[in-house]
Specification:
0% helix, 112 residues, single chain, four-stranded antiparallel sheet
């Protein structure tokens, strides 16, 4: 049974930072294709970052490149999204996903 739990969301002023965490259970870290996504009110789901199975380099869309950093810890099967220089448009519910199949419940990020 695969389970993902996000944490670390909250409210922050523009220019600030947050680090999101994603705890994964029931899925092997080394074979995971991991991704972070977000959905703002009234907007479609947006891909934020991802690491392909067996890959070591995360990829990012232009909207967050240079500001967001995705990382993982194989020892704890945790994934992280470090978000710096946050903008108003980063406000959304953020989700982590394994193999684009298993999803967490989401964590709210509000930038004001």
């Amino acid at each position: 049974h695969v389970q993902l739990v996000e944490s670390g969301g909250g409210s922050v002023q523009a220019g600030g930072s947050l680090r999101l965490s994603c705890s994964v259970s029931g899925h092997t870290y080394s074979t995971a294709c991991m991704g972070w996504f977000r959905q703002a009110p009234g907007k479609p789901l947006e891909w934020v970052s991802g690491i392909d199975q067996g890959g070591s380099d995360a990829r990012y869309p232009d909207s967050v490149k240079g500001r967001f950093t995705m990382s993982g810890d194989s020892a704890t099967n945790m994934w992280y999204l470090q978000m710096n220089s946050l903008k108003l448009e980063d406000t959304a519910v953020y989700y982590c996903a394994v193999d684009y199949t298993y999803w967490g419940q989401g964590t709210q990020v509000t930038v004001s």
